[in-house]
Write a structure and sequence with these properties.
The complex is a heterodimer of chains A (96) and B (250).
Chain A lengths: L3 H22 L3 H23 L8 H36 L1
Helix pairs in contact in A: 1-2, 2-3
Chain B lengths: L10 H25 L8 H8 L1 H4 L4 H9 L1 H18 L6 E4 L7 H24 L7 H18 L2 E4 L3 H20 L14 H33 L7 H4 L3 H5 L1
Classes of the chains: A mainly alpha (96), B mainly alpha (250).
Chain lengths: 96, 250
């Protein structure tokens, strides 16, 4: 049987692999951004799963790092989406 | 750039796709092999945090790490947010108008009227509870931003990106964080709050950061909405999900 930490680690790595595959295989830029986000969530889950290694004691540093990371990831995807919208705008103008 | 997945791909493409999938599977499996036997790491840092919790001014260790022990991280994170907001803001004097609300159902409107004060209240609670339990500026900021989105989607509205109020909201978190860091420094160390006033200072910084985070998230969304208004699309998000028309015609 898997322990809770092992289950979390396992799911995190699976998410990471799914995101990575999606990032390479998909050509649509929005799908690429979503895949990048899934990959990031996998990494956050991996970090969180390392926080509770000792039974009872929980390391707050990975929690704080993940909290920071989530906000930066949200900001990064917002920037990526805005760039994608801008790109669409420019390519459409060029095609007209 | 905006190609969709071609269903009738050539055999060579299928071969490459299979190759990529197999290699990704190999990468995932090797990662599992490395990561899964989780070794017990030394909790030296966690022990230090437990020992020094009394100096932090809060009871929640995560908040203590975020805003006291490693407050540089949080400061730089707020800088990242500000940079993203500036990057997303339109170059020219941008204004977003909607002549008709995106959501027109009247039952949704009454739900919004009920939800907006409730979400604001929960955001305030989140901000306050961060000192004792999971919660804090980011959660509260995300809630406030969702509140703003509800209002924007269900009302006619006009938003100007370059008004003084919008700019003050965006930079407030960073200004107050840096200001508190400089004013309250002890023995010449930046962001080293005095122990007795740490709780109040942390709440003060978090309140300002909450507003800035909510404003940044809203500005990012509205910039996207403006990009779509510019390309004469009726809905705010829908057109981006569809492939470009030019590609379809081929």
């Amino acid at each position: 049987m898997m322990s809770q930490v092992e289950l979390y680690t396992f799911c995190a790595v699976i998410l990471l692999g799914m995101g990575m595959t999606g990032l390479i295989l998909n050509q649509h830029i929005i799908r690429k951004i979503i895949a990048l986000n899934i990959m990031g969530i996998g990494i956050f889950m991996l970090l969180i799963s390392t926080a509770g290694v000792h039974s009872g004691a929980i390391d707050p540093v990975p929690h704080a790092m993940v909290l920071t990371g989530i906000v930066v990831a949200v900001a990064g995807s917002a920037l990526a989406l805005n760039l994608a919208a801008r790109l669409k705008d420019m390519t459409e103008q060029a095609d007209d | 750039m905006f190609k969709t997945d071609d269903v009738s791909a050539k055999p060579a493409h299928v071969f490459y796709k299979a190759l990529i999938m197999v290699s990704m599977l190999a990468v995932t499996l090797s990662l599992l092999w490395v990561v899964l036997p989780a070794e017990v790491h030394s909790n030296a840092v966690a022990q230090k945090i437990t020992q020094n919790m009394a100096q932090s001014g809060v009871l929640n260790p995560v908040t203590a790490v975020l805003l006291n022990f490693r407050s540089y991280d949080t400061l730089l994170e707020i800088v990242v947010l500000l940079v993203v907001a500036i990057a997303c803001m339109p170059m020219h004097r941008g204004t977003v108008h909607t002549h008709e609300p995106v959501i027109t159902s009247s039952s949704v409107h009454s739900l919004v009227a009920l939800l907006v004060p409730l979400i604001t209240l929960v955001a305030g609670y989140m901000l306050w509870v961060g000192a004792f339990a999971p919660g804090g500026a980011f959660q509260a900021g995300a809630l406030l931003a969702s509140c703003g989105l509800l209002i924007i989607l269900s009302r006619k509205f006009t938003f100007e990106f370059h008004t003084l109020t919008a700019r003050i909201c965006l930079v407030m978190g960073l200004t107050i964080f840096v200001g508190v860091g400089i004013m309250s420094q002890q023995s010449g160390l930046f962001l080293q709050y005095p122990v007795e006033s740490a709780a109040g200072l942390i709440l003060f910084i978090e309140s300002a950061a909450t507003l800035s985070i909510a404003a940044t998230l809203l500005v990012c969304y509205l910039a996207l909405a403006q990009a779509n208004v510019r390309s004469n699309a009726p809905s705010a998000i829908q057109p981006m999900m569809q492939p470009a028309k030019v590609e379809q015609e081929k």
